[in-house]
Amino acid sequence: MTDALTQDLRALLGAAHVLTGEDAQPYLTDWRKLVQGNARLVARPGTTDDVAAVMRLCAAHGVPVTPQGGNTGQVAGGVPGAEGDGVLLSLARLNRVRAIDTDNDTITVEAGCVLQSVQQAAEAAGRLFPLSLGAEGSCMIGGNLGTNAGGTQVLRYGNARELCLGLEVVLADGEIWHGLRGLRKDNSGYDLRDLFIGSEGTLGIITAATLKLFPLPAARCTALAALGSIHDAARFLARCRAGFHATLTGFELMSGACLRLVVETYSQQRAPFATLDAPWYVLVEISDAEDEPHALARLEAVLGAALEAGEIADVAIAQSTAQADALWHLRESITLALAEDGKCLKHDVSLPVSAVPHFVESTDAALQQHFPGVRNFTFGHLGDGNLHYNVARPEAADDATLHAMQPGLSNLVHDAVHGLGGSISAEQGIGRVRTADLARYKQPVELRLMRAIKQAIDPGGLLNPGVLLP
Amino acid sequence: MTDALTQDLRALLGAAHVLTGEDAQPYLTDWRKLVQGNARLVARPGTTDDVAAVMRLCAAHGVPVTPQGGNTGQVAGGVPGAEGDGVLLSLARLNRVRAIDTDNDTITVEAGCVLQSVQQAAEAAGRLFPLSLGAEGSCMIGGNLGTNAGGTQVLRYGNARELCLGLEVVLADGEIWHGLRGLRKDNSGYDLRDLFIGSEGTLGIITAATLKLFPLPAARCTALAALGSIHDAARFLARCRAGFHATLTGFELMSGACLRLVVETYSQQRAPFATLDAPWYVLVEISDAEDEPHALARLEAVLGAALEAGEIADVAIAQSTAQADALWHLRESITLALAEDGKCLKHDVSLPVSAVPHFVESTDAALQQHFPGVRNFTFGHLGDGNLHYNVARPEAADDATLHAMQPGLSNLVHDAVHGLGGSISAEQGIGRVRTADLARYKQPVELRLMRAIKQAIDPGGLLNPGVLLP
Predict the structure, then answer these.
(1) How many angstroms separate the CA atoms of B359 and B374, rounded?
(2) What is the CB-side half-sphere exposure of residue A280 using CA atoms within 13 A?
(3) How far is Cα B294 from Cα B259, in angstroms, rounded to an integer?
(4) Which of A438, B152, B325, B463 has the highest CB neighbour number within 10 Å of its CB?
(5) Which stretches make up the FAD-binding PCMH-type domain (chains A, B) (predicted)?
(6) Torsion angle of alpha carbons B26, B31, B34, B39, nearest 10°?
(7) How many CB atoms sit inside 10 A of residue A371's CB?
(8) Alpha helix positions (H), B214-333
(9) Nearest alpha-carbon partner for A345 in A369, A366, A330, A367
(10) What is the pLDDT of residue B1?
């Protein structure tokens, strides 16, 4: 017995693009397996007009819709809840590059384009699309915009929000907003674009975007520095900002514990130092407009001065692309090495950069007081004030012990962040996982404004219920 | 006979800060004298709490409020309409710098701070606050954010929107949103900040902001190039972007007519060329992280290659700060020279950069066909696709002739902009002057979303009625 909505959607999209039962399962769990959701069906429209038609049908039947891109989110914002009454709408078939305009330095892509394919299309046109993050081989640009993705190049180029000039959005009633403008300046009315960006699919379905492109760097140079304290890291960042200005494209902080875990876990990986006993390391990357000799000379000048000032204890400058890749590989292996170590409690927080040293020192100490033996594996994008503040079980304990610590431990961390003017979600969003945290830390007036906006734009509450809004 | 609201406001703020009659007049007309408004009184609160108390009183009496900063807007968005039933709320007394955090590269200022004083406070702390525009000596940062101001440094640093990390806002009911966060990454909920920025006081009253700071350039170098065609300007921009990357901080296009008008109007001003017969000129500025010799060498290398490629016909590189200032002074004198020439029809438009050459050529030609003899004085921020497309009366005609042409002529210009995917307001906003244009060019779905948001956040319609929304 097939219901009317399913029949209508099959007629619209073809039976091959309306999935149920086993075929639907891969779409219903997030990759971290935090949430096992249900849906009456998975719809896979291939065009914006079909997305609009799906939304009109769902609105007519009063059926909620969860939009999904690459399903690589960290907070289960792209999978439905357990109710099973809704439609999972996959944007994966909207995967065309619609236009590249090198004179305007813009690219227009559909929501289902994999991030890496956008980077590649830009590079083939002699341009850089700088958004870069771990999941770039499978995440999709619609999801990147829906969650305002961050990553490693934010210091120079900003978040996904800052890289987007225009959007095409299907609203809850199926109407299409044609906002694919490639304009650097447009003060004609409210900023609808930034309202949809980061709204995690709760206000509309992003179907395409016009994005900024940049010149390709003439040379990239990378170095790894060892530091004696977290306070030195803040001073070193200030020196790099002043010395490199906008050529500073990476400033990745890693605790010594993170780096030691990587080389212990993956024996083929080596750090460029005889010992790894410094408490902190920083990976510095610059992207130069001139050439490699100029980039290396700049890097040597600024890092040399930092050595002389005692802000860094040691430094290794990559002399080849292979050496640079090896340094970045150390950084990118932290998450996998942590997973090998067992479960860990992850906190994706941001702080004013000036508050980071105090936060790390006082929170590390408070954890040892209240949860003796837990192990900190802190790393992150220091230039953005963004820390991945990870806490692993004590050596002698098991995952269940850590699990039992979770509510109290995470509240301790988040209370400290909140007390210093920080955010409990720097780059990953709220999803289904952090709605209770949002209710705990957001001001009542902010929650009231958010609910009023949701009610104004999606009065039926059809778009991604259970996500973002507590 | 004094009404209850006036009495309450005098008790709250002191009689000296509640102005009526003659004292109120300076606040009720915009500086371009486009609108002569009326108000029952002018309130000058000195703190955010007082702004909130004013709003609570006005809400209780159902009295509309027009917020005003430096009253330097181009579209009369900061003055009331003719009704005379409302309150003009001046933010000028909220003029403190609340904090500078050089480790976080942020400054927190109140809405009534004059832009130039924010620039100076940043510079005193060894940092750059890059927002820069003609009115910087009297415009206020609250108005800059309320209108998402642009200016000459957008190419590198973005509009006011991109320079703002956090806001403090008083809502229509007097509640205060404490959103002064100094975070580069914060994905905890809808982007309320960007909704208030550019809303021209119709959604809330910005009382303070946390803004981004940047390193001071080690050297600034400036050049003036003569070009043979508008197509060359687009090619020259692409070369400068590729050659200078983020050190390119200025790329100001000026027609030969603009430059000739300046040197004819102000005999003490000289262009660095023997003749001024090129159709287009571009002022190029770079801001270097190293030193002046490096900056000059880079400028010479890239501009030399442009000369060789025939993209520019001639170039003069300023060899001193005085010479650079003289080049910028030419650019900044265009508006004043135009005012000396008589009335002119101004259009503040933006386009994809790739569409600018066609727009200029085809629109100039269409104007001559429909309005023979009118004179174009086009200049603007080409790197942002932002043109100030000014049209002056035919030599032999008077201002009244031009005035009679206005509706048809402006519609011709704006239709052309709209047809090429551009915006009829690049950096000046909508205010009271352009609401009919907004109704003409905005998609119905955009107007519907804007009205729904307005209704959700200011259900009583008390904030700046008559501005922005048609």
Answers:
(1) 17
(2) 22
(3) 29
(4) B463
(5) 35-216
(6) -30
(7) 19
(8) 230-244, 256-265, 292-308, 321-332
(9) A367
(10) 54
Q: Are A118 and A106 in contact (CB under 8 A)?
A: no
- Residue B427 φ then ψ, to 5°: -135, -5
Q: Complex ipTM above 0.90? A: yes
Q: Which residues of B touch A182 (CB under 8 A)?
A: 352, 421
Whether the CB of A161 is below 8 Å from some CB of chain B: the reply is yes
| Distance, CA of B109 to CA of A28 (rounded, Å) | 47
**A232: closest chain B residue by CA:** B103
> Is the same domain home to B69 and B115?
no
Say whether residue A444 is in contact with chain B using an 8 A CB cutoff.
no
Instruction: Specify the DSSP class assigned to residue B440.
Output: H
Which residues have C-beta within 8 Å of that of residue A213, sequence separation ≥ 6? A100, A102, A105, A106, A107, A122, A125, A127, A128, A129
Say yes or no: B10 and B55 in one domain: yes
Whether chain A has a CB inside 8 Å of the CB on B311: the answer is no
Per-residue pLDDT, B212: 98
CA A374 – CA A357 distance, rounded (Å): 19
Residue A356 has pLDDT above 60, yes or no: yes
What are the tens digits of pLDDT across the range A126-140?
999 999 999 999 999
Both B115 and B162 in one domain: the answer is yes
Question: B383 and chain A: CB distance < 8 Å anywhere?
Answer: yes
In this prediction, the residues of chain B whose per-residue pLDDT falls under 50 are none
* Helix H or strand E segment including B124: helix B115-124
Whole-Å CA distances, A191 to A105, A164, B334: 21, 12, 31
Rounded CA separation A367/B20 (Å): 60
Q: Looking at CA atoms only, how far is residue B289 from chain A in angstroms?
A: 6
Complete DSSP assignment for A204-256? -EEEEEEEE-EEPPSEEEEEEEEES-HHHHHHHHHHHHHHHGGGEEEEEEEEH
pLDDT for B193 equals 98
Tell me how many degrees the CA angle B131-B241-B128 measures, rounded to the nearest 5: 25
Q: B466: exposed, middle or buried (C-beta count within 10 Å: 0-12, 13-18, 19+)?
A: buried
Given the DSSP bridges, would you call strands A344-345 and A280-288 parallel, antiparallel or unpaired?
unpaired
Question: Quick one: pLDDT band at residue A1, thresholds 50, 70, 90?
Answer: low
Same domain, residue pair A101 and A211? yes
Best of A190, A388, A435, A457 to substitute, by most chain B Cβ atoms within 10 angstroms, is A190
**Domain boundary residue among B335, B354, B375?**
B335
Look at residue B148 in the predicted model and tell me its pLDDT.
98
Tell me, what CATH number does B229's domain have? 3.30.70.2190
Could you say which DSSP state residue B217 is in? P
Considering only CA atoms, give the Rg of chain A. 23
Asked if B438 lies within 8 A of A103 by C-beta distance, the reply is no
Residue span of the structural domain in which B36 resides:
4-90
Last residue of a domain, which of B313, B335, B357? B335
Token digits of residue B358: 């066609």
Element (H, E) at A265: helix A256-265
Residues B133 and B26 in one domain: no
Whether the Cβ atoms of residue A385 and residue A350 lie closer than 8 Å to each other: yes
Total structural domains in chain B? 3
Domain assignment of residue B384, yes or no = no
Are residues B103 and B198 located together in one domain of the fold? yes
- Residue B390 pairs in a beta bridge with B377
User: A90-117 burial string, b = 16+ CB within 10 Å, else e?
Assistant: bbbbbbebeebbeebbbbbbbbbbbbeb
Nearest CA in chain B to A215: B242
CB contact under 8 A, B175 and A103: no
Cα(A416)–Cα(A424) distance, integer angstroms: 10
